[in-house]
Request: fold
Amino acid sequence: MFRYKKSVAFENLEKELDQFSEKIEGLKLPKGFSKTVLYITSEIFANIKEHSHAGKTFINIKIGKKNAEIDIADDGIGFRTSYLRKKIYPKDDFSAIEFALSGLSTKDSQERGFGLYSIKKLAEALGGQLMIKTGLAEATIEKNRITFHKLKKRTVGTLIGFKSPIKSVNFYKII
Reply:
């Protein structure tokens, strides 16, 4: 079993990714699965760096014999505020999640962002689950279905959770 749990300052994200990437690459996992884990974590880190204005990131990765879980949270501004700062106006936190999952980037209105979209595709292909919490919204994506829940308490920043059975995956065919 592999377990990695850490709180990381924003400026140390790249170094942290390098540290746990080496460990994950050294695990004996089915074909394409370690690539999947590394892709998911690097995409989430890239989103944090580009959009969140976070101070800290919280990483929790568990890889067991049959299942893997990745939870990465930041203390940043959240999806909706990130869009609003770029003069993109989601009506609420639910709409902001839908924007992000469809590839609408806050870097440039002419640019598409496929990180979360690709992570969603990986979750679906593996029979897993993707969960996103931001502001007052929570979205769970499982079996090609998105379920939304209104949170009672506002989430500071964003939490991305990925759960999946461990199995071979043709990573490049999905991405």
About this structure: Residues 33-52 form the longest helix (20 residues).
